[in-house]
Amino acid sequence: MAKASRSPWKRQNPRKRAGKASKHLSPAQKSAAKARARRAGRRYPNLADNMRMAAKKTSKSKSSKAKASKTKKSAKKKSAKKARKRTAKKAAKASRKRRATAQEKDPRGGLTAAGRKAFARKQGARLRPGVTKKESDMTLQEMRRKGSWAVRFYGRAKLPPLVDAKGQPTRHALSAHAWGEPVPKTVAAARRIAAKGERLLARYRRAKAK
C-alpha cells in the first residue's frame, strides 16, 4: 500500500531545506487566510489556511506566465503572418512589373508600341519604330535615323556582349532586328552594320549638301 502523506505541520519547510529564505504572505493573502478561517469556524487561520493562500499565489503566477507565453506566441504568429503578407505583396508587385516589362519589350528585339508609350510617359522621349525599309525606299530622314542608330549601337569602341552565357543573342544584339538588320552574334557582324550606317549618313549628308 502507498504510504499516507505526512501532515504539513510534520514536514520540514521545503524552502528552508533548500537553503532559501522563507517567503511571507502579503497583507491581502493574510486577509484571505483569516476570512477562510472564519468561514471554517476558526478564530485564527492555521497552517492549512496559510498554505492554501500561498498556493493560490503560485497558481496565479503560473497562470500569468502561461498567459504571457500565449500572448507572446500569438504576437509571433501575427508578426509572421504580416511578414508573409508583405513578402507576397512584394512578389505580386514584382510579378506585375515583370509582366508589364515583358509586354513593353518585343522578344525579337526593340520595343513594342506599348513599350514606346511607356518610355514616352516615363521619360518624355518620343521614340519611333526602327526603319526596316530597303535603302532605295528610304527618305533622307529615315537614312539619317537608321545611320545614326547603326553607328551609335554597333560603331562604339567597346561593344556590349552580343551573346549571353547560353549563346543566345542579348537585347543589344536583338535591337538589329527592329531595324531590319540581321542579328549580329560576332563583333565583325556588328561592325558591318555600323559600316552600313556610316554609308547611310554619308549619303544623307551628300543629299543635304545639294
Protein described:
With 210 residues, this protein is mainly α. Among the domains are: 24-72; 130-209, no CATH class. Helices cover 63% and strands 0% of the residues. The chain contains seven helices and no strands. The protein has helices at residues 14-17, 27-39, 47-104, 113-123, 140-154, 171-178, 187-209. The chain starts with 13 loop residues before the first helix and ends with a helix. 11% of the residues are buried. The mean pLDDT is 82.
Top keywords for this entry?
single chain, 210 residues, mainly alpha
Question: Brief overview, please?
Answer:
With 210 residues, the chain is mainly α.
Write the layout of secondary structure elements.
Elements (H helix, E strand, L loop, with lengths): L13 H4 L9 H13 L7 H58 L8 H11 L16 H15 L16 H8 L8 H23 L1
Helix pairs in contact: 2-3, 5-7
Q: Kindly state the percentage of residues in helix.
A: 55-70%
**For the terminal residues, how far apart are their CA atoms?**
126 Å
Largest sheet: none
Structural class: mainly alpha
The number of E-state strands comes to 0
Strand content: under 5%
Question: For the residues shown, what is the average pLDDT?
Answer: 82
What is the number of helices? 7
SSE order: HHHHHHH
Instruction: Supply Rg.
Output: 43 Å
| Mass-distribution shape | rod-shaped
Taking pLDDT < 50 over at least 5 consecutive residues as the criterion, the unreliable ranges are none
Assembly of the depicted chains: single chain
